[in-house]
Design brief:
Elements lengths: L2 H6 L5 H20 L3 E4 L5 H10 L4 E4 L2 H5 L8 E3 L13 E7 L8 H11 E12 L7 H6 L7 H9 L3 E9 L4 H11 L7 H7 L4 H11 L12 E8 L2
Parallel strand pairs: 1-2, 1-4, 2-3, 4-5
Antiparallel strand pairs: 5-7, 6-7
Helix pairs in contact: 2-3, 2-10, 8-9
């Protein structure tokens, strides 16, 4: 994850809030009944904090980026500087819910990563995955963010099913934001300063524009398979 994200992402950012809204729509009952939750790639704790505030549940945070951990805003969730490929014995089959939000696109070897995730997930455990959508939206923003790819529903479903998971539900979201990301692709291509494409691409502007973007982001049916700026899937670990 890029350093700039930790400075730009905050709890009132329209995208942070919309992602959590979609997660609740897709998996509210699953989250409520979970006894042990972990987020892989927790960064500065935006999602952990959302779960804490809404469900009053702790979310163990795994992160390799020390800068993100230092800026983590979770209130009572444990934090670990931990590489899941180490497969620590104390974490084997420990969690019945894993959150993998905007991480998989940063991973070159998806299969090895998903197999390490399986190690940490209990039998028949659930994972919620969110990734950026639509490869034609790939831009200099994605390059600076460290993304290898963007996903279609079919591609995400294929890679998880090839690695021992079953898709329970899946959706695009961010339908009304697609034209904005097409415009962003043009704007960020002209940025020459280091981090300029990322900071420009993720910054919603002032409070009013952030609110307006939040309202726009909610103008879509869910679940939907039309298109969107992200894909979210709820998947179950197979034996």
């Amino acid at each position: 994850m890029s350093d700039w994200y930790f400075d730009l992402a905050h709890l009132e950012h329209f995208w942070v809030r919309r992602r959590f809204d979609v997660m609740r729509r897709m998996a509210d009952a699953i989250i409520r009944k979970s006894k042990a939750i972990a987020e892989v790639g927790c960064g500065n704790g935006m999602l952990q904090r959302c779960v804490e505030d809404h469900y009053n549940l702790p979310v163990s945070g795994f992160e390799l980026h020390e800068g993100g951990l230092k800026k983590n805003v979770s209130r009572f969730s444990p934090l670990y500087c931990y590489d899941i490929h180490h497969r620590a014995p104390e974490f084997r089959s420990r969690f019945d819910l894993l959150l993998l939000c905007d991480v998989l696109e940063h991973i070159e070897d998806e299969a090895a990563f998903l197999q390490s995730l399986r190690y940490h997930l209990s039998d028949n455990g659930t994972m919620i995955i969110n990734v950026p959508a639509l490869q034609y939206l790939f831009s200099k923003y994605d390059e600076e963010a460290g993304h290898y790819r963007r996903y279609s529903i079919d591609r995400l479903q294929k890679v998880v099913e090839e690695n021992g998971f079953k898709v329970r539900s899946i959706t695009y979201w961010g339908l009304c934001l697609v034209p904005l990301l097409m415009a962003r692709k043009v704007v960020v291509s002209m940025k020459r300063n280091e981090g300029g494409a990322y900071s420009t691409g993720f910054d919603p502007g002032g409070r009013l524009s952030n609110k307006a973007l939040g309202l726009l982001a909610r103008c879509e049916p869910l679940p939907q398979r039309i298109q969107g700026t992200s894909v979210m899937a709820v998947v179950e670990k197979l034996p």
